[in-house]
């Protein structure tokens, strides 16, 4: 039986709310910038649009393990300060050059590369910050707040990006991004984590440290199972709403408005679960809860494929399952990782998701073209059901708890009030 944790309402440090506000401002700036880059690239044709997206995604995937290792060796906060400062300068340069030359191809590609490289170093460091700021007990609620805030920001970013691009073009969008990076830079400089971890001791070899992060993820039974299940979810669940739902809508002759309602139903289910976690706390066995969430999402996919007329409740089920999985697997990975490997584990988690998503977007798109969107949905439902069974069949994952640290974590403590390395 899955029970709610008794100490779910441990007080949240005020510094976390300050950091969260800056992080959400940064997410808004990133989302608007991505929209503007895609819009400007599309004006040059599909080839250039694909090239700009590749310029963002390829460096991010290739350098994630490097970025995680740098975060553990030199301190997550220091990496974030450098990353925000570089992006602030980069956005000011983008605004100045685009004002003079317009959105020329080389400028779009160069900006994409800058964003991708920044993400590779920044995402692992930023992903480890909630644990450094709030400690163990409030962590699930802290991550749920971040996830829910990011969802709401994403809703706002599309209309805002469209309006901003129409009114001020790429130059105005770059200036807004510069403003958001200024906000998060000031916040990260001002906030000193109360539960910080000294930089990891170096083995003397950067490559050995990087491979040690990968090896740790593969050897630890909880982390290994969590990474495997996350890869399955990223490959077969994440592409459904943005990729397969529009294809199904065209097959079923749904209007754009009705398709938007289905999109919203999925988001409603996801945000509902996140809100429950924020208010009442996470469940006591996060691995078990995540596995159940995957099976709930599988049921939603099956219903969507077999009964398109029930698309709204099916989408709600997909959202509920996704929210249950995401709100529990994140805290479990952070709590199960050795404190010396926090950024590297976040890098590995992001890498697994990125590679699976990149690969399966193409596979599922072609499967839908060769068969039909509902067949592709059924295949995803079957794969996600299998992923859920793997999660529930893994004893280390199924029995893991957030409240009780693993033996590794018992040997390594987060020292409250430690001086930040930056």
TrEMBL record:
Alphabetical list of Pfam families matching this protein: MFS_1
Q: How does it sit in the membrane?
A: Multi-pass membrane protein
Q: Which InterPro entries match?
A: MFS, MFS_trans_sf
Keywords, A to Z, come to: Cell membrane, Membrane, Transmembrane, Transmembrane helix
Segments passing through the bilayer: 16-42, 48-67, 79-98, 104-123, 143-168, 174-195, 225-249, 261-279, 286-306, 312-335, 347-364, 376-393
Q: What is its main location?
A: membrane
Q: Where in the cell is it found?
A: Cell membrane
Q: Which domain of life is it from?
A: Bacteria
**Protein's recorded name:** MFS transporter
Where do the coiled-coil regions begin and end? none
